[in-house]
Prior knowledge:
Elements: H1 4-28, H2 42-51, H3 54-68, H4 73-84, H5 93-96, H6 98-107, H7 145-168, H8 174-183, H9 188-191, E1 206-207, E2 210-211, H10 212-223, H11 228-235, H12 246-261, H13 280-288, H14 292-304, H15 310-319, H16 322-329
Antiparallel strand pairs: 1-2
Amino acid sequence: MRTLATLAHLLVSALLVAPLSLHAKDAAKPARPASTAKPAGPAERAALVADQLPMVKRAIHGVHLMASELKHPALRAAVEAQLASPWLTPDTFALTHKSQAEQLLRKEHLLADADSLVLPEQTKATFDTAPGGPCPTGHHAYPGGLAVHSWTNALHARAMADVYEKVHGVKLEDDLLIAASLWHDSLKVATLPWDANGTCPSQEPQVAGTALHHILGIANAISRHLPRALVWSIASAHAPPAGEWLPKVCAYLRAGAIVAVGNPDAVACPSLTEGKKPPIEAFITHFVDADYPLTVPSWGAYASATPSGWARFSALAQDGSDLLVWSRTQETSDR
Length: 335
């Protein structure tokens, strides 16, 4: 029979050994494998940046609210679809007949012989996170810059419409102004994609003497069967539809029609004759897409003073806006 001393000795030994046994058991477990989660891609990183920029979040809300408030149901549906998926529609002629589209563009002197028609592949990029201009120093060249640019244009369009009503007594169509302002740059999602380093292309391919996004946006407007007055307004963003600039607008329309349906004459060109006069809204669409003399040097100055790549946008989240930084250092009347 064991003595009390023996039992006590066994109890103490058990208490001392138990923790060692637990640690030994843990040590015997195989090490956990390293995380296999893929690092965030450019589209995901751009979305994270956009969510950190209050200016961008306000613009995204403003853009989608304006789209949802368009009065005409069919137009509202088309604009919301374009914002949700700003890519060429599957039935686009150039997607299935690229060589024929290139031949037609060259025949119409809309594409240089040495150039090819670039048709961007669809990615995870979105309207809400795309840049508003080329990187690194184009206007609004940051995630969400496209939304900021588009919202600014739409607000300018409404303000200018108010001026024309007060001065001339003409009532302009709000749906036409807002739809054109939100639509005309939407294909920058395709032509200015973010890369892993937090930058985007420094320039776009040219078609009909203008940036590719403009022609692709017109093509989508045709493919989605928008009213002619709206197609004209979208085309007029890069040139006013009258005088010496009218041939440019006609070239944009012909190029967009070739890409969309393979027919350069699918959309008539505006003229100053009765029944084909471009709407006043088309001119306003052009007028309001014109703050780049300010926003290009503003962003360029900001980009030159901040780190490159994704780190630049972390600085922007702290500063709020490149224009805010510009305003703090500009000449004022009290200096």
